[in-house]
C-alpha cells in the first residue's frame, strides 16, 4: 500500500511503489469483462475524490519539489491507467462482435426454412366472390345489409303479410323479449338476403342491378346438407321492360359461367311471396351430365335456386320511399341461391359441416394451407 509519510520516504521507495501500482493496474484491467467492471475500475483509479491516483497525488505531490521529482512518474501512471481503460473498452466491443460472429456460425443454412402458412379464401367466400364476379361482368354492383333484421324488411315488405302461411316456410330465429314492439319493428335473424332488395330500392331509384352476398339464419336442424347458418347470393334487376326471358338468359349465363358452358338450365313453376311468377331453377347434373346418378336422384337435374319477376306488391312498398318504383312503368326480376349448395357441388363436398369445421386438412384442399414463404 502507499505510504503517507512524506517525500523522504518516497524518495527511497518511489520506484518500487510506482512499479507496484502499475502492476496492480495492469492486473486489475486484465480481467475487466463488462461495462460495469470497466466503470468500477475507472472509479477505483481515476475517481476524483477517492480514486487511487487522487490519493497518490495527495500523498506524494503536495510540494513543488515533490511535483518536480515525481510528476513525470505520476503522469506516466495516469496515462497507463487511461490506456488500460481504453483497451478494456475496445476489447469489450470486440468480444461482443465475436460473440455475434460465433452465433452466426451456429446458423445451419442447410436446415429447412421456417414453414409459414399462406392464407387463402375460404371455399364459401371464394364461391361468393365467383358469383359476384359473374354478375359484376353483367353490370351488377354489390349490396349488403344487416344480419339482424326487422320483421318489416325480412317479411312484410317482401309481401309476407303478418300471419301469412309462407312465413312458416322460413324457420325463423327471432330475438326474445320484444313483445312491446310493434310486429314490423321486431328483430330477427334474417332468413334470406331478400330484405336487402327492399333496403336497396329504398336507397336508389330504378334502374337497379345488384347482387347481395350474405349470411342468413334458419332454425334448420343441422344435417349433411343443412346448417342453421348459411350463405346466399341474391340478385335484383329492375328497369323498364325487364322480362322473364331476361331472367332466364341471365341465370342461364350465370350457371354456365359457374359450372361450364355445357350445363343446361330449366325453370319450374314455384312460389315466393315477393315474385310473381316464381320459378325454381334446375341445372343438368354436372356429375352424370344428365344421365341420372345418385347425386341427382337419377333425374339428371339438380335444383339450385329460386327466382321470379318482382311482385308488384313489393314495388308498392319500395315506392313509399322511391316513387320511381311504379309497377306500371318498370318491371324486374330477382333470384336467390344458397352458396353452400353451389360450393358443395362445385368442389364435391358431401358434408356441409366441413365448411365450418376449421379443419386445415379440408381447407388446404382449396389452395390455401402450407407453403414456404419468405
Ligand atoms: N329468398 C328466397 C329463399 O331464401 C330465394 C329467392 C330470392 C327467390 C329471390 C326468388 C327471388 O328461398
Q: How is this structure best described in words?
A:
The chain is an alpha+beta fold. It has two domains: 4-102; 120-373, BirA Bifunctional Protein, domain 2. Helices cover 41% and strands 19% of the residues. The chain is built from eleven helices and eleven strands. A seven-stranded mixed β-sheet has the order 2-5-6-10-9-8-7, with helices on both faces. Strands 1-11 form a two-stranded antiparallel ribbon. A hairpin with a 2-residue loop joins strand 7 and strand 8 (275-284). The chain is elongated. Residues 1-10 and 368-374 have low confidence and may be disordered. The structure holds phenylalanine (PHE). Residues 192, 194, 234, 272, 275, 306-308, 334-336 line the site of phenylalanine. Phenylalanine binds at residues 192, 194, 234, 272, 275, 306-308, 334-336.
In short:
By secondary structure, the protein is α+β, with helices and mostly antiparallel strands. The protein is built from eleven helices and eleven strands.
Overall strand count: 11
Query: What is the residue-averaged pLDDT?
Result: 89
* Order of strands, widest sheet: 2-5-6-10-9-8-7
**Poorly predicted runs:** 1-10, 368-374
Number of domains: 2
Which homologous superfamily in CATH is the superfamily of the largest domain? Bira Bifunctional Protein, Domain 2
CATH first level of the largest domain: Alpha Beta
Task: Report the CATH topology name of the largest domain.
Answer: BirA Bifunctional Protein, domain 2
Largest sheet: 7 strands, mixed
Total count of helical runs of at least 4 residues: 11
Look at the helices and sheets and give the structural class: alpha+beta
Question: Which small molecules are bound?
Answer: phenylalanine
Structural shape: elongated
Q: What is the CATH-assigned architecture of the largest domain?
A: 2-Layer Sandwich
Radius of gyration: 43 Å
Along the chain, the helix and strand elements come as: HHHHEHEEHEHEEHEEEHEHHE
Amino acid at each position: 500500500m502507499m505510504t503517507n509519510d512524506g517525500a523522504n520516504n518516497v524518495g527511497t521507495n518511489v520506484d518500487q511503489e510506482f512499479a507496484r501500482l502499475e502492476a496492480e493496474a495492469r492486473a486489475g484491467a486484465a480481467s475487466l469483462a463488462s461495462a460495469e467492471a470497466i466503470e468500477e475500475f475507472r472509479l477505483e483509479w481515476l475517481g476524483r475524490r477517492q480514486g487511487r491516483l487522487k490519493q497518490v497525488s495527495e500523498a506524494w505531490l503536495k510540494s513543488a519539489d515533490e511535483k518536480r521529482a515525481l510528476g513525470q512518474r505520476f503522469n506516466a501512471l495516469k496515462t497507463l491507467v487511461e490506456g488500460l481503460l481504453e483497451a478494456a473498452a475496445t476489447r469489450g466491443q470486440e468480444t461482443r462482435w465475436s460473440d455475434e460472429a460465433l452465433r452466426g456460425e451456429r446458423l445451419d443454412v442447410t436446415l429447412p426454412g421456417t414453414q409459414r402458412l399462406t392464407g387463402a379464401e375460404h371455399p364459401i367466400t371464394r364461391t361468393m366472390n365467383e358469383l359476384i364476379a359473374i354478375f359484376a361482368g353483367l353490370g351488377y354492383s354489390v349490396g349488403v345489409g344487416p344480419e339482424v333484421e326487422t320483421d318489416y324488411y325480412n317479411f312484410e315488405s317482401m309481401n309476407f303479410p303478418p300471419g301469412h302461411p309462407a312465413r312458416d316456410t322460413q324457420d325463423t330465429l327471432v330475438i326474445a323479449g320484444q313483445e312491446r314492439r310493434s310486429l314490423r319493428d321486431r328483430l330477427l335473424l334474417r332468413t334470406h338476403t331478400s330484405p336487402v332488395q327492399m333496403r336497396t330500392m329504398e336507397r336508389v331509384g330504378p334502374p337497379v342491378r345488384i347482387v347481395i352476398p350474405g349470411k342468413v339464419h334458419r332454425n334448420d336442424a343441422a344435417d349433411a346438407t343443412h346448417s342453421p347458418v348459411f350463405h346466399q347470393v341474391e340478385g335484383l334487376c329492375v328497369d323498364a321492360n325487364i322480362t322473364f326471358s331476361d331472367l332466364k338468359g341471365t341465370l342461364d349465363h350465370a350457371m354456365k359461367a359457374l359450372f361450364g358452358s355445357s350445363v343446361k338450365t330449366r325453370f319450374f313453376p314455384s312460389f315466393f311471396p315477393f315474385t310473381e311468377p316464381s320459378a325454381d331453377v334446375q341445372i343438368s347434373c354436372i356429375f352424370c351430365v344428365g344421365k341420372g346418378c345418385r347425386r341427382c336422384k337419377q333425374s339428371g337435374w339438380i335444383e339450385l335456386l329460386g327466382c321470379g319477376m318482382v311482385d308488384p306488391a313489393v314495388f308498392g312498398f319500395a315506392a313509399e320511399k322511391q316513387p320511381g318504383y311504379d309497377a306500371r312503368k318498370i318491371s324486374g326480376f330477382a333470384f336467390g341461391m344458397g352458396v353452400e349448395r353451389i360450393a358443395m357441388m362445385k368442389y364435391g363436398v358431401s358434408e356441409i359441416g366441413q365448411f365450418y369445421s376449421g379443419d386445415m386438412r379440408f381447407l388446404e384442399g382449396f389452395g390455401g394451407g402450407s407453403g414456404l414463404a419468405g
